[in-house]
Amino acid sequence: MQVRMLDAAGARAHAPQLRALLQDAVAHGASVGFVMPLAQAVVDAYWGDVTEAVAGGSRILLAAWRDHVLVGTVQLDLCMKPNGGNRAEVQKLLVHSGARRGGAATALMAAAEMQALALRRGLLFLDTEAGSDAEALYARLGYTRVGELPEYCATPNGAWRATAIWYKTLFVRERKEARQV
Fold first, then answer.
1. Which of 89, 101, 104, 170 is deepest in the core (most CB within 10 A)?
2. Is the pLDDT at 178 greater than 60, yes or no?
3. Do 122 and 169 meet the contact criterion of CB atoms below 8 Å apart?
4. Tens of pLDDT along 44-83?
5. What's phi and psi for 94, nearest 5 deg?
6. For residues 9 and 169, what is the distance between their CA atoms, to the nearest angstrom?
7. Could you tell me the domains of the chain?
8. How far apart are CA 57 and CA 101, in angstroms?
């Protein structure tokens, strides 16, 4: 398994594989923001937006490869607000249905954490469908479950589900105390 970061040119170069990965994930029930039927224009627009965010420096796109085949991706959405430079949101952990339970998700999350540390982002957070298999993964990786938001998202077949919120502290920043005058 090899995980590497894709820049905007890399995302454009691998656009067909990225599109196929998203389509596979949604077709196999991943609640990642899309419902069936998933139109090609929607998939293209989504990856276009991701590529633009990568080019703008607000998003990190990591891709996992096995035997030269793209099997998964994950993204770090970097908070660009002055008071949020310590955090990033983990988004769209996608693993091809034929590669699940083969270590791709774990490798992608480890790479995301390494990237976050390199960027001095000490707090990662994410949401996932409550009760999904992904929850066991995040717990195993040391994330803490905060709670649920009811009927937050729809599954690909349109059923409303709760989302579970998770976070992981990679390091704690030194606090600057406000000076009393």
1. 104
2. no
3. yes
4. 999 999 999 999 999 999 999 999 999 999 999 999 999 9
5. -120, 130
6. 31
7. 2-126 (3.40.630.30)
8. 31
Q: Which strands form 2-6's sheet, in the order they lie side by side?
A: 2-6, 59-66, 69-78, 87-95, 123-129, 160-169, 144-154
Structure tokens that stand for 44 in this block: 């293209």
